Protein 1
Amino acid sequence: MLIKKPADIRSSEITPKKLYQTRREFIKAAGMVGGAAIGVEVLTKGAAVLHAVQPAAHGRKLNVKPNPTFSNTNGEPKNTWEQITTYNNYYEFGIDKDQPAELARNFKTDNWTIEVSGECAKKGKFPLEDLIKDETIEERVYRMRCVEAWSMVIPWDGIPLASIIKKLQPTAKAKYIKMSTALDKQMPGIRSDVLDWPYVEGLRMDEAMNPLTIFAVGLYGEALPNQDGAPIRLVVPWKYGFKGVKSINKIEFTEKQPLNTWQRTAPNEYGFYANVNPNVDHPRWSQATERRIGEFFKRKTLMFNGYGDQVASLYTGLDLKKNF
């Protein structure tokens, strides 16, 4: 067995102290899932389930319209269904990348509702089907980059967030949109204190109204798998992955900038904007390069994740190093 000396270990390989302390508590809290015990082995980069992780079962087919405007991958192959559904960040179902595939398997999302509040005309609890009714579901192939310096090319199926916002009729006071993940007893991770639940994220209204921003309800033409944020999640492709709040059950229009979960947890490491920027290092690792899942060699990180032509104008005059 190869044992690394402290000097040989990159900062990006070091598990944050709070996650390390919480890991055993989380595993104990998760207990039995579907009648099978979860076995865990500690590795250099964290814990891994001992048995092979199974990809999500293929689900309900969606009536999807390809959107060629956002489907150009610049020759990069799409990541596979297997990769996209077995390597996930979803702390409500585990703090390791392979745990959500196991622990979210039986998550029930029937009769899903979204509560809308704040500075808008249309308030109340809306069945998901009513909120997205008559909206065209489009396939959009996006590069998603996570802050830990890994990335994927994912064919999301979703609805422009702008069309949902227009339905809800925000007032002139609505400067931001705040979104929250469900706090559900089916989620074993919420029994740990690794984060302050529920998971909260936010966008400026102009970011939310950008044509790139979508509420994803599927991928590869099928209903969104549980581990990827079923039944509805946010996708903002020029930002780091932690902005993509999953299993959304609350939307609030606010006048003041909301405090997102990671900004509240580690304000010296995470900000509100989370724009992909190779010139701004995370305090514990460089953001200048990334590794595409399924590839061995790293590649250079692109400013705004390669979507600068579409979104750079949103930040004219804003110091992107200070406002990370």
Protein 2
Amino acid sequence: MQVLNRTAPPARTLAAALDAEWSDRWSDIRPDADWLLLAVRDDTIGEVAAALAPYVPQALATHTSGATPGTVLAPHFQRFGVFYPLQSFSREREPDWSTIPLCVDAAAPADLLFLQEMAGKLGMRAWPVNDEQRAALHVAAVFANNFVNHCYTIAEQLLAEKGLPFELLHPLMRETLAKALAYSPAQMQTGPARRGDQATLERHLALLAQHTDWQTVYAALSESIRNVVPSGVK
């Protein structure tokens, strides 16, 4: 029903898309607001909550962070929780909301039920996830998304240095993901570290001599693979 933002243009743009009211002043929040969705940076959640609480102390306040506990809202609101969509969002792509897990948590059972119902209205599946579970989930998501994407970036730049297109790796990337989704990723692990092929590992490290940071990443990941899956297993 209402969009608040520190600066007017983003508030106006989003409000127009939602057919909602907007303001760039916290004090303009509707006094009858019963649910607040704080979609802000992690390090500003507490600050924004403190600014809004005096105007709507009775509201259910929720944030959308995976890494920050819901209790960050406790000093400001009696009713608080988390409404966290587990997905990476980019302006260039429209997400399929029906496939995105929505992790919910709340201090009161009635508020948790409300958040689960709201997830259903959005066509999403709600997963009750507490603060401790969500912290581990967020770390896992960094490995599965941010770190993997950075590895793609390294691969793309290595190929570009030799005049090769990144699309050469696309079939391999698709097959790797398909196997990880169908089976345990540890079971599907391949490569020189999995095989214990030290000669190949050393050649690869030599090829990365001009990129010492990538060398470090390669060595660390190879050692981690050897620790998770016994070397020599094909």
Protein 3
Amino acid sequence: MEKVLITGGAGFIGSHFIKYLLKKTSAWEITNVDKLTYAGNLKTLSEIASDSRYQFVQADIIDFQKMRKLTSGASLIVNFAAESHVDRSIEDASPFVKTNVEGTRVLLEVARINKVKKFVQVSTDEVYGSIKTGQFTESSTVKPSSPYSASKAAADMLVLAYVKTYGLPAVITRCSNNYGSYQFPEKLIPFFTTRVLKDEPLPLYGNGHNIRDWIYVLDHCEAIHAVMDEGEVGEVYNIGAECEKTNLEIVQLILKHFNKPPSLIKFVKDRLGHDERYAISNKKMQTQIGWTPRYSFDDKFPETLDWYAKHLNWWN
């Protein structure tokens, strides 16, 4: 069996990815490293906790000696570990720089020392900033707007530098907004869903016209798996579903799904540096990797809303 080290695997996307991999193949042994911050929850992995191919280690990715030991013998590292909430980064950028930049540097260094076969850096479309028309491609200029996206962009630059300087076999994925079960309730869809279920006001930034591209979390997992297998060293791959919705549209769909009144919406002062629109092209993933999203928003969005309605104990 090949050893795969997954960092941040107790988070939303990382936990889905671990469960996806264990179902997909029996050839890998997975070690999940997570610091278990407020957004990490081992309950999301309870169904595979006893799987002999899986082990969990609570640790911080900035712990060089710990990461060096855990990386020894690993063929692959997939780095999901990150501070990721924009509002929190505006309040205090220091944890974002510490985890997203220094943590990535530590992982790159131990990957180099232990001669890991491939390093996958899971990044975000937010590093490109906002775009009025058209779509960002992998060759577009990186222009982050928030401390969060700046820290992710810095991490990406470190990855590319390690490829160039040391020949580290690394790739970068940049994905659009994810949705699905087990997402921490500070994120947009579960945030508004849980408030609607409690009949609480829905504070919506600005006029609600900010646009995001939404992708179902398992589409993202399949894309990362494809890049693990087929991605070329030093390349960046955009992972998007071309499913653009304004924040207001999302909130209106949630209200409609639960038959709640629009009067719950309360427009509030806009967030500092709020990007107007994210849009990325996934043509490179289609033509070079052979991946396309296969889950429909019309099917998976209401299914996601129903999951939160049925799992009040989890998010409460």
